[in-house]
């Protein structure tokens, strides 16, 4: 592991005083972690420096050809005041998988994890205290060369920034309405759907804006070929409860392999739910919900945690699910996952990394 240099800020910012108003990703801490990659040298110069703007050449390749990937993970404050991370090494391992798909070299995960921990420890007073809040950790890699030829860059920047956050959706655990997108698609198999690359999110923005105008929080993406099968909701993977059976779209290359998805599926099995990963036709989902067989729908993600979906709209049919309220399965999984993340429940899967 390489040595990490530290330069402290001379102008620390005031920390938020009202944690109920944090929202998501609006405030950033005093420092960030940086590390460069150069062809022939590998990942070099890991450093913690004061948070500041970057100065980038207008020809910087990330602006033109979009080699940009990111991750999202969180630091949680336990009731005893101590701090813990949740599966951070798994996030960085996924970052390497995203990197390789985008022609970016594999991350030095060991140094990145050491930098992440050291940065969070340095910024520990920024980890909020209120129920449901956390310090969101955003590792990112961008292509840095100032060059207009379309090929892999020779210089990349890895950085981590930190943001104290509340819930991702404005109304916390209140069920959200989701619009089933039947015009645009997010990803196709063989494309970049499984990678956490900025382009996947860029591809989702227009549909998201249009859905918001119709009163929905997000869009549910269908497969990119037939627009028949359920994929994911951009910021979360989707799950459906049929009583005590939980069904989620199988990973097929165009869906993000969410770590919260993976954690929830393992916890659900351990809690005694029947779990299956399947190709799910949207027409069947609607039919099952109309007939009362499908009792709950919810999304899972680091930012979204477990978010109940109270309404789905597809081709102008509005379907209220579970009476528009959070159901027992989503509530149990939310309580179990957050119980482990905040240290209220035992961590039988060894997912938690205690920092203090
Ligand atoms: C996360 O859940 O960490 C994500 O990266 C989703 C993001 C769009 C907020």
Query: Which strand-content bin applies to the residues?
Result: 25-35%
- Rounded to an integer, what's the Rg over CA atoms? 20 Å
- CATH class division of the largest domain: Alpha Beta
Could you say what the CATH architecture of the largest domain is? Alpha-Beta Barrel
Major beta-sheet overview: 9 strands, mixed
Overall number of domains:
2
The overall pLDDT average reads 97
How many runs of DSSP E, i.e. beta strands?
17
- What's the CATH H-level homologous superfamily of the largest domain? D-amino Acid Aminotransferase, subunit A, domain 2
> How much helical structure, as a percent, in the residues?
10-25%
Give the termini distance in whole angstroms.
22 Å
Which class best fits the helix and strand makeup? alpha+beta
Shape: globular
pLDDT < 50 stretches: none
Task: Looking at this protein, list some descriptive labels.
single chain, about 350 residues, alpha+beta, D-amino Acid Aminotransferase, Chain A, domain 1, D-amino Acid Aminotransferase, Chain A, domain 2, 2 domains, eight-stranded mixed β-sheet, about 30% strand, binds 2-OXO-4-methylpentanoic acid
What would your notes on this structure say?
By secondary structure, the chain is of the alpha+beta class. It has 2 domains: 5-165, 2-Layer Sandwich (D-amino Acid Aminotransferase, Chain A, domain 1), CATH 3.30.470; 176-341, D-amino Acid Aminotransferase, Chain A, domain 2 (Alpha-Beta Barrel), CATH 3.20.10. It is 24% helix and 28% strand. It contains 7 helices and 17 strands. Strands 1, 2, 3, 4, 5, 6, 7, 8 and 17 form a 9-stranded mixed β-sheet that branches. Strands 9, 10, 11, 12, 13, 14, 15 and 16 form an 8-stranded mixed β-sheet that branches. The protein is globular. It starts with a strand and ends with a strand. 2-OXO-4-methylpentanoic acid (COI) binds next to loops.
């Amino acid at each position: 592991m390489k040595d990490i240099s530290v330069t402290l800020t001379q102008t620390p910012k005031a920390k938020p005083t009202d944690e109920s108003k944090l929202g998501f990703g609006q405030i950033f801490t005093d420092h960030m972690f940086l590390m460069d990659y150069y062809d022939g040298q590998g990942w070099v110069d890991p450093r913690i420096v004061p948070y500041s703007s970057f100065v980038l050449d207008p020809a910087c390749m990330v602006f033109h050809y979009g080699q940009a990937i990111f991750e999202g993970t969180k630091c949680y404050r336990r009731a005893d005041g101590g701090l813990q991370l949740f599966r951070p090494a798994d996030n960085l391992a996924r970052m390497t998988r995203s990197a390789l798909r985008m022609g970016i070299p594999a991350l030095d995960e060991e140094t990145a994890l050491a930098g992440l921990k050291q940065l969070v420890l340095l910024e520990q007073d920024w980890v909020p205290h209120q129920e449901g809040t956390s310090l969101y950790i955003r590792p990112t890699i961008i292509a840095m060369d100032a060059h207009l030829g379309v090929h892999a860059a020779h210089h990349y920047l890895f950085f981590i920034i930190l943001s104290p956050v509340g819930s991702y959706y404005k109304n916390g655990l209140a069920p959200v309405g989701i619009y089933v997108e039947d015009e645009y698609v997010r990803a196709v198999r063989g494309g970049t759907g499984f990678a956490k690359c900025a382009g996947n999110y860029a591809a989702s923005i227009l549909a998201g804006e249009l859905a918001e105008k119709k009163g929905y929080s997000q869009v549910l993406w269908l497969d990119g070929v037939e627009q028949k099968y359920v994929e994911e909701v951009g910021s979360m993977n989707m799950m459906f409860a049929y009583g005590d059976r939980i069904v989620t779209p199988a990973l097929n290359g165009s869906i993000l392999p969410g770590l919260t998805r993976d954690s929830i599926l393992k916890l659900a099995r351990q809690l005694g739910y029947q779990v299956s990963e399947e190709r799910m036709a949207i027409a069947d989902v609607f039919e099952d919900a109309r007939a009362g067989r499908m009792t709950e729908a919810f999304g899972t993600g680091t930012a979204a945690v477990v978010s109940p979906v109270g309404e789905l709209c597809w081709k102008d049919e509005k379907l209220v699910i579970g009476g528009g309220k959070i159901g027992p399965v989503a509530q149990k999984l939310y309580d179990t996952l957050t119980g482990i993340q905040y240290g209220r429940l035992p961590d039988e899967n060894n997912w938690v990394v205690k920092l203090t």
